[in-house]
């Protein structure tokens, strides 16, 4: 099953860098920016995370929270958060449960090799827990500003 725009997002709980688990349903009444990225500490993923970090105050003002998701283990997330002072939780989707639900776990090709991995994507979940907007095959440059503009229009 793949979640589609307008549908309620199921309550999937994943291990979180904040300790314990986090589910999107924990944030009812807020906008949730759920962004999927391939790997901690890589150039594009670092730029994207730091862009969300740099806009975190503006997002708080419009009642939005950011959740980053990758297949990396929590130990790697913790190093990533510490190194770049990220103010939002990162979720560890090692079993690709949430990644498959959002259809971002894809066959990828790099330098002639094929492998399964995350297709960089961002989703906005509205205050009632429904998928409101999606961006797939995201290009990092100016993407966070685009997401912020969309949230401002909604609020």
How would you portray this structure in words?
The chain has one domain (29-154): Glutaredoxin. The chain is 30% helix and 28% strand. It has five helices and nine strands, in the order βββααβαβαββββα. It is globular and about 45 Å long. The chain starts with 12 loop residues before the first strand and ends with a helix.
Chain-wise SSE layout:
Elements lengths: L12 E3 L5 E3 L7 E6 L6 H12 L1 H6 L2 E7 L3 H11 L5 E3 L4 H5 L3 E6 L2 E6 L2 E5 L5 E5 L7 H12 L1
Parallel strand pairs: 3-4, 4-5
Antiparallel strand pairs: 1-2, 3-8, 6-7, 8-9
**Share of residues in strands:** 25-35%
What structural category characterises the helix and strand content?
alpha/beta
Strand order within the widest sheet?
A: 5-4-3-8-9
| Helix proportion range | 25-40%
CATH class category: Alpha Beta
Please count the beta strands (DSSP E, at least 2 residues each). 9
| Order of SSEs | EEEHHEHEHEEEEH
CATH superfamily: Glutaredoxin
Characteristics:
alpha/beta; Glutaredoxin; two-stranded antiparallel ribbon; 28% strand
Quick synopsis:
The chain is of the alpha/beta class and 155 residues long. The chain is built from 5 helices and 9 strands, in the order E-E-E-H-H-E-H-E-H-E-E-E-E-H.
């Amino acid at each position: 099953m793949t979640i589609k725009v307008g549908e309620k997002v199921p309550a999937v709980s994943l291990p979180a860098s904040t300790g314990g688990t986090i589910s999107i349903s924990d944030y009812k009444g807020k906008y949730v920016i759920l962004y999927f990225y391939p790997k901690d500490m890589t150039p594009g993923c670092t730029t994207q995370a730091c862009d969300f970090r740099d806009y975190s105050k503006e997002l708080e003002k419009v009642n939005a929270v950011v959740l980053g998701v990758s297949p990396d283990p929590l130990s790697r997330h913790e190093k990533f958060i510490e190194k770049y002072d990220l103010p939002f939780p990162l979720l560890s989707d090692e079993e690709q449960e949430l990644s498959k639900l959002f259809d971002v776990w894809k066959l990828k090709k790099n330098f002639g090799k094929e492998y399964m991995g995350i297709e960089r994507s961002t989703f906005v979940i509205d205050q009632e827990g429904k998928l409101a907007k999606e961006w797939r095959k995201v290009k990092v440059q100016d993407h966070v500003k685009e997401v912020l503009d969309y949230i401002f229009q909604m609020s």
